[in-house]
User: Fold this.
Amino acid sequence: MKGMMMFFTILLLVTAIVIIAAYSPLYQGAAQAGQLSAERYASEISGIINIMQQSPPGTSHSYELPDKECILTLGDRVTMTLSPGEKEAKASVGTIQYAAAVVPARFDCSEHDQIVFERNENIIIVRG
Amino acid sequence: MSEEFPVPDEILAVIRMVAFGIFIVAMVLFMTNVYTTTGLDFTQKASREIGNTLLSGPATEQRGIFLAEKLDEYMASPLQEPIGRHCSMAYHMKIESLDPKIKNADGGNAWEFGFEPSDVSKEYSNDAEKEFAVAVRRGEYTGPAKLTIKVYRTWLTDVSCMLAEAYATGQAQTLATSIACVETQETAVPGLAGSRIRGEYCNLYLKKESGQLCYIKAEDGREETRGCRTIDDALPFDSFRLPDDFYYSLDAHIVTYASPQFALKAVPLRKGETLEADNAECGDYESKVAETREEIGQIYLCIDKGL
Assistant:
């Protein structure tokens, strides 16, 4: 009985140590996943802008914004901020500067479900 | 009649403990090896998008049909990337005529222009190459050709982009980087009280040269340009400043044994503010940073060792 008690005490201690040791890499992993997610969104949206640059005037494309807290800023660069605040994940990706410039805009994902890109003569307008 | 082997409780307890120990070690290894990736290759993606831009750009008559006269103009132009520009990726393009009747202005069979990375940055470049079947038209005659695009992302393209971004946003930009010691030089660098210390150093020497940001190799008073990238058109050339002697040296011995970690910053300062010109380190820059684009006087590049 005494041996079992000792065994379970050691088991408890070691498990606590493992949980503490694993917390940091797991937390970092979660933060990295958030960062990669922001990079993926920024990259997708910059790709849309780059393709719209070569499209004829009148072309439009709609894009669903992520179903989570985020801020999207558009201009020469696309900046996506997920979970804005202290633990935010932010990524910024450049676009090709070519025939049509993007009219700078800022979207809050809690206010817009999707955005629509419209290619006009010399500009790309993005509406919420 | 078989004889049962006696297993004392102590041995069972040891086996249990060892098994538990192995389980714990396996769990720790599993937990510490957790990492995430998207599998996205941004350079490959940029090469496809830049390729599409070039295929229907101003040098073409229709998609994929290039005009030889336009290509001759671009080849003679000092502009490095005349057709579209990606902030952090630079391209080099080559169009080879596959028809002997279609030649460039010099009588050759190829048109080639764009960013050329230095030998040093080539080794550390993340690049992607794409080929497209195209045509070249001269006058009434159209012949087949091959377009090859190579897209580079080097730290020089990152720095040029960072400067443009600092100007566009009015916020300090950071490039956390580790400059590999590929170019150790026997050179003298500023030491204490104006002295010069001679030794093996790794160098990061950037300079403005005719509208371009250039990486320079400096050895015994001689300077050799090793690679340049044209600075973004949107960035007025006077609006940023590299100290004339932006020269950051790392002790080669330290570099050999521990990769140096520091952040290169582009700091947009308010009008009238300066950082120490002879010191490549950022120091206390926060109080001098402009808050809006309109407030920017100059943009400084500096080293922040606060990593």
